[in-house]
Each structure stands twice: as C-alpha cells, then as structure tokens.
Design brief:
Length: 390
C-alpha cells in the first residue's frame, strides 16, 4: 500500500505513463504537428483527453498544493515519454515554470486571473526575457537587458524587443522582464495585446512546443501597477526562483523522451538481423545500448539529487547548473547512439527517435548553454576557494 505524498506521486506517475503511452503516442504522426509545434486544435484535443483521464496538470494537486521536486520528477519523467506528452498533460515549458513562479510569488488576485487558467490547461503562457543578440540584448547574461519600463501614473509603459520567446504565438498569459530605475522587473500581461507584436516565428531545430519560438517587438505596452510580479527591481531574484527548478524540469521531461528513444532503438536492435545475427549481438551495437543504460541511470540520479537539494528550500542555483549540464549532455549521448543504432531509420521520421535527437540538441542550449553553466560553476569554485583562504 502507498502512503502519503510519495504514494500519491507514484500513483500519478503510473497514470501519466499509461496515458502518454496509450493515448498520446498514437498522435505522434498527426498532421496537425508542424515545424512550430502542435496546432492549438491538437493541444485542446489532447488536454481534453488528459482532463478526462485525471492526469491534467498532475504536479499541482487540488487546492493548489505543488508536489515536491522529487515527486515532480516522478511525474514529469513519464510525461516526457512522448514529445507530445508534456503538451497533453500540461507539464511543458514554459507553462510549467511559469505556474511554479506564479504559485510562489503572485498575489491572490494575480493567481485568480493569471494562474488559475494555466493550471486548468485552458490557456498557454510565454516568458519574455531573452533579447536579440543583434541588438546587444539579454541572452545568457540578463544584465544586458535593453527592454525598458517607466512608470506613468498608475501604469507602467514598456518598450523593447525580445527573441526566442517560446509559445508567444497563441499565448494568453505573459511574463515580461524589463529594466526599470529600480532594476529588472517582471510584469504580468494579458495576451494578445496590440503593443506586443510577433515579428516572426523562428525556424529552429526543435518542434515540440506550441507556438514555436518568436522574435517579438514591444511598443508602448501599458501594464497596470497591480500587475507587477513581486516588486520593482526584484526581476533577477524572481528569475532564479523560476529558473533553478525549471532547468531541472527540462531534465525530467527529456529524460522520459530519451528513455523512450532507447526503448525504440533496443527493440530495433533486437529484431534487426545483420551478418547472420541480431544487431544487439554485435558488440558495437550492444555496447552502445549498454552505455545508454548507464547514462540514463546516472542522469536520473543527478535529477533526484538536485530535486532533493531544491526540496530543502535552498535556491539550488549551482546544483541546477550541474544537473542541467550533466543531464543534457548524457541524454544527448543517448539520443545520438539511438540514431546510430537504427541507421537510416534513425534519421527518418518513421519513429520519434529523430525528433528526440533534435529536441535534446536544442535543450543543450535552452535555459542556458552548457558552457555558461560551466563558467558560472567555475566562478563559484573561485569564490569558495577564496572564502576558504579567509
């Protein structure tokens, strides 16, 4: 018998896994899937089925209680068994991270207006922080932010440009980061708004997230003062509240995707005959699958370790950076081996292996590229050494 919150998470994880495997996976060849993600019609259809199955937004319980990070990992990993799984059960980025931030920081009024429809899976959201490199704007270094906000009576007026904004097209809830006199500040906005214009939707290597990734122009956006998230000048602090667990959530979801890719590659290697025996019996292939198991297990251990740190209440910035680097690089190796094991089939669209490879390649950049996280960790090493010297 399962007891307590851990038991709830395990039961939810089993239900999510069954739903993703049995209901969501058959949609992976649906014509409503495009280069910029699934259509709004497909999103609504999948979420209606998730709601009927009792697995919509499974990491947030009735009454608004959020699972611990360790429990969230148990649920989000099986949600990622299909690239469509997080979309269907409402655990995808950026919504999952935005719901977490709003649940921690938003006022009761803000939660009722912005958070409740997100948790219900009725709307999607976007997080407007990254800016175009050509403009010298904020990317991995948010201190370079060029988007500005100035007070105007009981409102704020925001102007700037943003880039790589996931899900902006079709989103109903926005969190906009801008630079005010007090410092970086976050604003909650209703979308669409004529002052927020999608310049173009970028063609990127990944294709799992509804709305794709957009370049956005913000021109004279007026936001009521009561729609500031937190307080003016708290933007960078709040970004860390969101980004540390959000990085880990990416690891959870893509661990599920890599696990499924490995299952497909394993089945292929065990069935496919070459040179008088199954592919798996050739050391070159069998060893790749063995290495996949090792990388998947090590990645899972890293996810659980980082989740435990975050569950202590620590900000976990260094730990989430380590997890992001270790897991994204390990899962990239897994996806690459799966493609290699399957040969021509692995680079075709006949299975999700090719898509998982593309998605995880993008994951190594999104939420901070590997090199930025290593640089941040190196700075911490230096600070810790100096502190130890007195």
């Amino acid at each position: 018998m399962l007891h307590g919150a851990d038991g709830v998470a395990k039961m939810l994880a089993k239900r999510v896994e069954q739903f993703v495997r049995d209901v969501v996976a058959p949609y992976e060849q649906d014509p409503r899937l495009g280069a910029h993600g699934p259509s709004e019609e497909l999103v609504a259809e999948l979420r209606a089925k998730a709601k009927a199955a009792g697995v919509l937004t499974p990491h947030i319980l009735e009454g608004g209680a959020h699972l611990t990070q360790r429990e969230t990992a148990a649920v989000l990993k099986p949600s990622g068994l299909s690239p469509l799984g997080p979309v269907a059960v409402n655990t995808m980025a950026p919504d999952e991270g935005n719901m977490y931030l709003l649940g921690k920081i938003a006022t009761a009024e803000q939660k009722a207006h912005f958070l409740a429809p997100l948790v219900a899976g009725e709307v999607r959201s976007a997080f407007f922080m990254t800016e175009p490199a050509a403009d010298g704007g904020a990317g991995s270094d948010p201190s370079m932010m060029q988007t500005v906000a100035r007070p105007d009576g009981n409102h704020w007026v925001i102007d700037g440009r943003k880039a790589f904004i996931t899900g902006a097209q079709g989103a109903k809830v926005g969190i906009v980061m801008a630079k005010s006199d007090e410092g970086a500040t976050m604003f909650l906005v209703d979308l669409p708004d004529p002052a927020i214009r999608i310049v173009r939707v970028l063609d990127t290597i990944d294709s799992s997230m509804p709305g794709g990734h957009s370049v956005v122009a913000i021109e004279g956006l007026r936001v009521p003062a009561n729609q500031i998230l937190g307080a003016p000048g708290e933007g960078f602090k709040l970004a860390q509240v969101r980004l540390s667990p959000a990085r880990l959530s990416h690891c959870m979801r893509w661990h599920g995707a890599a696990t499924r890719a490995n299952e497909i590659a394993t089945a292929y290697a065990c069935r496919r005959q070459a040179f008088g025996k199954p592919l798996v019996d050739h050391e070159g292939v069998g060893f790749m699958l063995a290495e996949n198991l090792i990388d998947l297990q090590q990645a899972e251990l890293m996810i659980d370790w980082c989740a435990d740190v975050l569950d202590t209440g620590a900000l976990g910035t260094a730990e989430s950076s380590m997890a992001k680097v270790a897991v994204s690089e390990a899962l990239m190796r897994v996806a690459d081996r799966c493609v290699q094991v399957m040969g021509g089939t692995g680079v075709s669209g006949d299975t999700i292996v090719e898509q998982v490879f593309r998605e995880i390649r993008a994951f190594r950049i999104y939420d901070g590229p590997t090199e930025v996280h290593k640089w941040s960790l190196a700075k911490k090493i230096k600070r810790d050494w100096k502190s130890a010297q007195g």
